[in-house]
Amino acid sequence: MAETWLVVGLGNPGPRYETTRHNVGQMVVDELARRRGEVLRSHKTNARIAETWLRPGAAKLVLAKPNSFMNVSGGPVSSLAKFYGVDPDHVVVIHDELDIPFDTIKLKIGGGHGGHNGVRDVAKALGTPEFPRVRVGVGRPVGRQDPADWVLDPFGATERQNLPVLISDAADAVEQLVGEGLLAAQQRHHAPRV
Questions:
Q1: Which CATH number does the domain housing residue 61 bear?
Q2: Is 22 a catalytic residue?
Q3: For a disulfide at 54, which of 28, 58, 119, 177, Cβ 3.0-4.6 Å?
């Protein structure tokens, strides 16, 4: 039987937040679903999901977007992991990252939450921080803007021009992480762009 991976895009629910930096993880899940012709549907775990495959004959993917707000993402993620029998090492969490420049993707397993309340809540709910993460760089605000306000703002005009490529690259990173492992994904996506 093919192994199952739970791929979760963190964000906030509702149209007010759809295009904000904090929701870039959910944008990546939407891209993964689009590539497979899937539509996310309501699930009893307080999330929207689509069951699909990495590719025919390969790993099963459960693509998910919690319906909860970012800071309480752990409940839906934990419920989904239990429902599908997925261990934390097969729960891929995609999230925005202030400490990475915009248009940059980094992958890791475990470590601290770096002040990201969504990641903190997922680690608490799963009982471990040892889960794969695809960290999508949104950069820090210039000047004195509070980072908490920055992530709740929509991407700027210049960023929006490059956003489709960033989302596509992050979706590629998820696929490579699941299909080839962390090291292969890091080697490809941590290298400087040419």
A1: 3.40.50.1470
A2: yes
A3: 58
